[in-house]
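Exercise: predict the fold of this chain.
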Amino acid sequence: MRAWMLRKDQNGEFSCQLEALDQSQLGDEGVLVDVAYSTINYKDGLAMMNLSPVVRTWPMIAGIDFAGTIAEGPNAGQAVVVNGHGMGETRMGALASQARVPADWLITIPQPLEPLHAMAIGTAGYTAMLCVHVLEDQGLTPDKGPILVTGATGGVGSFATLLLAKKGFEVWASTGKASEADFLKGLGASQIIDRSELSEKGRPLGKERWAGAVDSVGSHTLANALAQTQYGGSIAACGLAQGFDLPATVMPFILRGVSLVGVDSVQAPREKRLRAWQSLAELLTPAEIEAMVELRPMSQALKAAEDIMANSYKGRVVIDIKAD
């Protein structure tokens, strides 16, 4: 089997290389899956470029999500997807020809989706769906007002824009890429906001502009989103692309009753995962998903990690594990 291996030697020197491995290195516990596709997420970029202490156990196979088919046993051939659970951090990851994981991690890919579609959605789309469910569970409906999406050309942001628009929400997309306005409007955004409006230190409380938000950026962007959320609104926070700090005040919470809800995709319980994947299959068509995908061979996974850290592409990059 082939895998992208992350290693540190006794001197702390880091390496990320595509290597040939023996299947036995996966251990013998769990279900063996033939991996068809994986993706490159922001966390994968951090790990493969050694920019943050994502990896907790060495050596480690990179990759936090995969789609493929069960390789053995009574369910052999069943198409499945796995996101998170510490893969690529404390458990051998997804950028490999095969993976071995606990049975309760496996989510059967709902029809009409196939493994390629599941990985085009990937952790980004699945996280976006979790965020949309959070906003709905907080009582937000399309008639309450627009929803802000930060980092809108990224994986989570682009899917959040599309999913919210599909559900009838008015979406305001924040991005630093003015050239991608048509891309975002094609996903359903009705208004484009330059990220500079939100990325610098702002007022503790501003004009009420949106009913809620999906934020994958953090730091000043999240603080400003909170300060401009309408009375009783909610924000689903799932990322820290700008930073993990939150230079905000309590004023939006105690004067406007704004809610800030954290969204974790790594350890989310199974019932939330099943709900998210079923909703994704109902809302998205294969053609829509394929339109957002850039397919790259296994050999280009490290280059894709470099690109995501440089913020030099939009939408989703899917790694074809079997392609050279």
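Check your answer against the key: The mean pLDDT is 95.
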